[in-house]
């Protein structure tokens, strides 16, 4: 046998390695686009290899296997911080959740593989409609991901721009869906707009080479026009922003960085409490008589005590003594027994809630109870049929969800009263919950969370990215207070101001290392600003909700009908 017969043809090698290269490029680009890497540009090209490959009509089996590998692998890398939650089961949860999320990528990429041959050689109108339909299909899938199986709408594509709010201003009208739509459309346009993939299979090559920009058709010009239109809108909104902003209040944020499992250890209760109190005392004036802030914030489940129910009174009294000394209200995350509203059916269990206690007045009458609970963290789904499954959080009883949005009034020293709209844990990931709080009258949103579960990688930063989206969507400032991770202030235009310790950790409590980032133990004060032009108003998104999802579904239907009715 000759040496030439032993060689694998170049085309065979190309077919063998191409799926790996396509999946690898998809995984790499999406991983880079989100924290901790924060290379937002990568989200603008992550689909390009798959789009070009789809126009070559690869074998369906090879294509779908590659699509699942790309979807599963990208989510596995993005959510790698899940391994910290209740090890070693965190690895199991990471693998299973990534596999489920990968199925959404398969659903979209399968639609791309179906549509690409039908778009090739079709009329320009059909091609544009096919692109719009594919972008709409991604939006619809993201929306489904937000509620199916209790929902996990983590990191929509729009979140990649969380540190570039100039590109996000359109979401005040469309919600996060509009920017996600434009990102997918841009990826499609990079391939479809050059004309090479759009030509019929037997079309003759051009007689002379054409400079690339001159080859760009409407398929590329449409996403570019949308992109630059959004930027111009942002520049117009920001032109008068700084002149219009006024101070709302000065908040003192306490970030205790308590290890998540030790928080629930009875032997560590005193240490946790002493850490919180010592950090809170840093807001007092030199004489220690009162605080120099308007509001003090503690994170989610700050103390492992009950603050609601028959055993809560001693804990309330102890906290009231501290608040009376400081002279300012304390807004904090705590737990307590579920208390039904008058006339409602009693629920057994605990609530993960936000409480307010005020100097001289004690605890406010109503508390906000977390409405969207974490499966296997705060309750066990299908516990009746799957009794062997347990919870990550060491609380015996299941947590009971709250039943409505609720704002908490804060009386300021200047005589004004503002209303805080609390969101607990990962509730700021769900756009409808923030929207409900604004419709209930919130002047600003408060996120109390315990991101210590995520480790010190990208998890807490990924979480904070969603608060930027919520601030712009609702045009309400957001203040975040975490056990660790990203605490700080986000204004109504999405500009974020983190609470940081630049390499100087406070040697108190359970602090291990100083990272020079948002991961630290300490306390800090910052001003919350508001823009009067947004006061008391509702954005288009707050008023009409996820209308853009319905619009995307109509584009899907129109694109599908166009491509199946007559193949060009």
Give a verbal description of the structure.
With 568 residues, this protein is of the alpha/beta class. Strands 1, 2, 3, 4, 5, 6 and 13 form a 7-stranded mixed sheet that branches. A 6-stranded mixed sheet has the order 7-8-9-10-11-12, with helices on one face. A hairpin with a 5-residue loop joins β11 and β12 (496-498). The chain is built from 17 helices and 13 strands. The chain has helices spanning 3-6, 10-33, 48-54, 60-78, 89-119, 124-145, 171-174, 176-192, 212-215, 218-238, 241-244, 269-281, 313-326, 431-439, 459-474, 540-544, 547-565, and strands at 246-255, 295-297, 330-337, 350-358, 362-363, 368-369, 408-411, 417-424, 444-449, 478-482, 488-490, 496-498, 522-530. The chain is 41% helix and 13% strand. It has 2 domains: 14-200 and 213-241 and 548-565; 246-530, 4-Layer Sandwich (Nitrilase/N-carbamoyl-D-aminoacid amidohydrolase). α2 runs antiparallel to α3.
